[in-house]
Amino acid sequence: MAIEKVRVFFGGLGLEDRILEFRQSSETVTLAAQAVGTEPKNIVKTMSFKVDGEPVLICMAGDARISNPKFKATFHTKATMLPHDEVGRLIGHDVGGVCPFAVNDGVAVYLDKSLEGLETVYPAAGSGSSAVRLSVLELERYASPRGWVDVCKDPE
């Protein structure tokens, strides 16, 4: 189970107590925000794409949306999400619990600038009824991203 991999990952850092598990689903931004008791923007939406045939995760604020032109300018390809039935195998977490921690080898992780300025954020923790409470600096440290990108639409 993917949440067990994430639990081991954070346990090795002495942060297992940051993992939150819920009785209800947290598989969408709205459900996760309700479960945590925060605004949707504080939920880290981790979306999985295929870039040059390889899996890529983009972590963004929960209220952010991908900008196709910005994605193409950054990655030099159209934004193509992984098919649902491939996510678990390629990423190591199933849809609804995808997070940037304890992922399969070779999965590139990027953080979107939509997360800048947020204090506490809640990415999933490997299951559709979990989250982990982190600062953005901790998210950056523990997700080990390849870098920061600007691939989301500007706020209106």
Question: Oligomer, anyone?
Answer: single chain
- Span of the ends, CA to CA: 39 Å
Q: Number of helical segments? A: 5
Helix content: 25-40%
Shape: globular
The spatial strand order of the largest sheet comes to 7-5-2-3-4-8
The SSE order reads HEHEEHHEEEEHE
Beta strand count: 8
Can you give me a brief rundown of this structure?
The protein has helices at residues 2-11, 29-36, 68-75, 84-91, 136-143, and strands spanning 19-21, 43-51, 54-61, 108-112, 120-123, 130-132, 134-135, 147-149. The protein has 156 residues and is an alpha/beta fold.
Question: What's the SSE blueprint?
Answer:
Blueprint: H1 2-11, E1 19-21, H2 29-36, E2 43-51, E3 54-61, H3 68-75, H4 84-91, E4 108-112, E5 120-123, E6 130-132, E7 134-135, H5 136-143, E8 147-149
Parallel strand pairs: 2-5, 3-4, 4-8
Antiparallel strand pairs: 1-6, 2-3, 5-7
Question: What does this protein structure show overall?
Answer:
The structure is a single chain. The protein is an alpha/beta fold. Helices cover 27% and strands 24% of the residues. The chain has five helices and eight strands; from the N terminus they run H-E-H-E-E-H-H-E-E-E-E-H-E. The strands form two sheets. The protein has a six-stranded mixed sheet with strand order 7-5-2-3-4-8. Strands 1-6 form a two-stranded antiparallel ribbon. Strand 2 (43-51) and strand 3 form a beta hairpin. The longest helix is centred in the first third of the chain and has 10 residues, at 2-11. The mean pLDDT is 95.
